[in-house]
What does this fold into?
Amino acid sequence: MKKLIDNFINALQSMDRLAVKRHIEELSGEHKPLWLIENLIAPALTALGEGWERGDVALSQVYMSGRICEELVDSILPPADNERKNQPPMAITVLEDYHMLGKRIVYSVLRAGGFELTDYGRLSTDELVDRINSDKPEVVLISVLMLPSALKIGKVKENINTSTKIIAGGAPFIFDNDLGKEVGVDEVGKNASDAIDILNKLSRVSS
Amino acid sequence: MSSYTSLTRVLTTLSHKEPDRVPFFLLVTMHGAKELGVTIKEYFSKAENVVEGQTRLREKYRHDCIYSFFYAPVETEAFGGEVIYHDDCPPNSGMPIISSEKDIKNLVAPNVYDTKCLLKVLKATEMLKGRTGDDAPLIGVVMSPFSLPVMQMGFDKYLEIIYERPDLFDLLMKINEDFCVQWANAQIEAGATAICYFDPLSSPTVTDRKIFLKTGFEIAKRTIAQIKGPVATHLASGRCLPIIDDLVKTGTAVVGTSAMEDISLLKNSCRGKLTVLGNLNGIEMRRWTSDQAEEIVKNTLAGAGHGGGFILSDNHGEIPWQVPDNVLMAISDAVHKWGVYPLDWVEDYYSSV
It folds into this structure.
């Protein structure tokens, strides 16, 4: 299996869409889509995310790989398919600042990992609080690039009246290991694929 | 009393020799608004404010440069984009000015000398040069042609054209390169000593080296060759170790380094080829105590100070608004205390830690 995953990663890093598709087609005869997602696609994206954190993989490769896999997963397992993971309602947003790439990457990686989530787009602190209080999602992922935006996550936590878990990620959290604790988030993602592990962990805890 | 000025101190380190003290670039922008007691938006509305702010900040923190940088989206503003101001962070760019293929095909670069926001920066540069003379280097700033499209069209759309639409990419680069050269040289003409070429996209943190060599590297070589003054490349917190030798070939003299990389490894890799600028962690900095600041500065000087070729600075090229004055003062005090050459305390320091 490791060899299969490594070959799949190589195809993704080279942006070779045809090779990526071929890998999936070769395995789809004997495996269901969800198996492919859990055993090939998600592990490959996790490895790329971890590679980025170590400095071995570029952000552009993580982004393009996520996009390619997202398209692929939508084709083999459409969003409305009954086999999609039974998962809690969750959403993703960019808080306060205008840098959308981090959210886009995490969104793609999660969808490629078989998760469905609502994209709130960019919201101010008050807008996010209102949205959480009205939608009551179980999990909200917050992406930020600017330090002041990261510091405002604390205000979101203070003002929501739900038990929503907050997962934060973005540059300020990479450069300051204590920031997550300071703003009171439930989890911090250091790379895009951390979100998959964190969501799996949260869903194991809640079940 | 040292006979060195800030300028001669910096020039000496750039020639990979030790001056009297490790040069110190405190790259403060918004803190000038605090000094003047005005909002960030008001501060950047007039050249005179930035001139006064930079002057006061250098007097206060005794650093070795003047920084005529206003804010990152000034170039996209010149292309017709919106700038969004906040009270506690640098101005951001608003909606991308490019949203379709047609927008790239119709894009026209602004003329620097007809563009209000750029003229304001040039006016500040001229005034700062008038005040500072040859005492300290005056650092102008450009966004690299390769990195500017992140603000012109949004990061995700831009990555897609890098990989999937080389025709549009080449067209956009041609426009941005011409503009960047004109903008850099206008700042040199107005009095800037050197140009800081911000190029975060070229960092291996963002772009893999194979793609970089076909894109950002070639663009930097062409652009830097046309800038009529020395250039420092800054990857704005991104890693640079895997591309140090490539950066040398672009013609740059300095590299701004990331807190994610070890300063002594960076120094060894750059020794005799590039001056290292960095790499204090600007995000963590806001919570440092004075003692921590002193220790971190000492550690950084110990790792990279020997032999010149080093300027102490932050790792991003802009100190966050949230970093308090007492931390900046502690950093300054530490470099003035421990950065005096020869750094003969370093051996004892390493044996004690």
